[in-house]
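Give me structure tokens for this 500-residue protein.
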Amino acid sequence: MDTPPDLDALAGADVVVIGGGFGGLSTACYLADAGAEVTLLEKNGQLGGRASRLEVEGFRFDMGPSWYLMPDVFERFFSHFGREPSDYYDLTRLDPHYRIFFKDGDRVDMVPDLERNRQVFESYEPGAGERFDEYLEKSKTNYEVGMEHFVYEDRSSLSDFIDWDVAKQARGLSLVGSMQDHVEEYFEHPKLQQIMQYTLVFLGGAPNNTPALYNLMSHVDFNMGVYYPENGLGGVVDGIAEMGRELGVDYRLDSPVAEIKGREGAFAVRTESGAEWFPDYVVSDADYRHTEMELLDEGKRQYDEDYWESRTYAPSAFLLYLGVEGDVDPLEHHTLVLPTDWDAHFEQIFDDPAWPDDPAYYLCVPSETDDDVAPEGHSNLFALVPIAAGLEDTPEMRQEYRDLVLDDIAEHTGVDLRDRIVVEESFCVSDFAERYNATKGTALGLAHTLRQTALFRPPHRSEAVEGLYFTGAFTTPGIGVPMCLISGELTAEAMAERAG
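Here you go.
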């Protein structure tokens, strides 16, 4: 078990946390455990942020994240409080981890057995099996060194990176170049390149704009495994929230914040209903830009609108939540449908924003693993198509794209859902903006481009307002549920360091 961070300086402090996503939930737990009085204000009627749930006519959908990756991060998080994940939920390792349908009719499974995966790689390209091992060894090194020295430690200034000890640890890491360049050094076959790069969607990037360091995600994928938590990702939210209550966190739902006034020791936080809190410290897990531009007075902002307009945002998404009669074989719990050339899709996300003509997309079918997410004799699934943040999404556009996606599923997986749908809901750019105050309707936050990684992300501690802090996907270490849990720890440590 790791030694918990020394947060004693926060004992007795009164803290308001704005937003109940994983970053806010994590920060609240660390602060409450340190002895702070913590009130968490959540805009919506349930906790979890983007990891909300939709329940309709016996179907239960995870609305956002649905992959349980990096189990070591969850174990480490709960261990800080003398607990473990199994105190709150069970895990099932998926087999296969996921299935890929390529749009040329090819199909491949990635499984927990590395030897079988190695044989798959060799079948596409002579020598690729051996290079598969070499690639995973490199990704394992990047993961172990990167997590210990660059993720769990918040290196938020240039001086943190020119220290000799840091340089020594960084030696050999894939710190320069893009993921595309890096993967091409190992594999020529485009399908093998796609298998090694599909996880970039979890980071909100593309092969040509994501740093090669993120090959560490292949260690996460192949060596650490893919799991399904009891009751889905919503069950993880429930577990963390329950632990928070045990630690003393006071959760207030349906409490959208309207403004933040004051400074350390003399804050005033007012909700849209007129309720007010007067804490010593404020932590925002809300969208960073929304917090600065909408909740703070102009003189209290670190960044102006030009800064936020200049950022590269992770994609938004077009989502279809579908309750379907009968089974959906041969879809697996996690299913990817990929064009043999996906460059055009990424171009329509980052370079020339438009609704993708030939989309790469993800199908989540939790009813393959969990009988409780759909009525008997039915299947539960959602389709997720990454699209550019900021796109217009009118009802007419959604209907047209809905038909395109269902046609594409039928053509390329052989599963025709169109005449069997009994429950259907969509979610898109405008919904992300309205429900989560997400800048440009991004589904994730700031993309992990080279210029938006590590010290180039917005800081945990406001440089304009003493006592105001930030947590979640806009800060370090970045996007994804595990990263947001770690962000909560880094935010609490930053608060304790300042308070001490």
